[in-house]
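Standup notes
- DV: blocked on the single-chain target, sequence here:
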Amino acid sequence: MESMTVKVVGLTTTDEEQIKKITKEDYELNGGHSANICYTQKSYDEILAEPIEKTIERANGNKENKHHSVFGHDNIELYFEGIPKIIAMLINNEKEYNTSEKSGRYTTMFGSEKENELYNKWKEIFINEIKREYPNEAYLTDKMITKKAMENSRYLLSVFMRTKMKYTTSFRQLNYLYDFTCKMISEDTTNPLKCELKPYLEEFRDTLLSTGFISEGIREYRNRSFSLIQDDNSFDDQFGRCYSVNYDSTFPALADLQRHRSLDYSLSLKEDRDFYVPKIISDKSDLVREWKDDMNSVSTFPQGLLVNVNETGKYEDFIMKLYERLCTAAQLEVCDITKETLTKYVKSLELSELKSNKKILEEMKKFTIGARCTFEEFDCPSPCKFVKGIILTRKI
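- DV (later): unblocked, structure below
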């Protein structure tokens, strides 16, 4: 039997001089070479040696017959500055990517002058409230308290707040994102979020075009578009081998959740306008009132606005999510959403008479004790020893 071999035939480069030499035509040509693998007995070296005209003809044929997977081998790394947060969420919801984004939990975020003023005001309020609630908690160092305060203050900033990110995706997917953007711009809609988003989408479309890697003919043909924002994404909750659940969430929580990537997420606006209230102030009526008044004053779409989220996936992937999100280090809102979904899941399985669901129930019960450090098969690399975090009753 012939033994297995491998040959590295492509690598991402960060060398600026090399980047200047690469064009979309190079990637189209590589697509033509990749397509030939499917149709010939030739070796890869023989494929590369064929006349360039023949390869280009094949690449164009693949565009026309919509066999675009051959254009997915080459990755492009993009560094965005000034990208609106909501557009970062749009493209992060499309699965085929890697992203490194400025964190609202670890760094100071900036919005309009008024947003910045309120951000700093509430940052100080949260610092004081955390210290008052947990005066002797070793886990909550001054640095950690400031981080938790920033995590909550960012709710006041608009979803159109500018941020920065590195985003890597395939040549094919980049062209699909361009196509999705054009579709959303031309969509006839009364959805307030989509309407307010359109000028930013036009800017994003032109920004993608400026990369030089948008190719005629590589367009999404299966009636797909951006999947994040729906006019109505409410479905009945269901739990079994696969599950679908709806819950209220803010934009930052959803942005954190969608990065899990094995699960599907979408949002729709709620009929009643309401905001997330951080737990650290939720039992103080005067602060709650002030928080909501300030939230209402900054933007039509502050990040703390509650939206309806639908989450859909397989139970194995939900369990994988538990290993990531049931933790003191996780964003509190995300941790709470995950815990509430787990409770719903277990209750639904307990009521089910399906044999397969009983098997899933036994598996799911292993994760109902507390944070991930209580899971039998998890060894925490940096134990927090924060008891209220471990038993999932923390307020921050």
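- Follow-up: The chain has three domains: 16-72, 75-209, 238-270+306-390.
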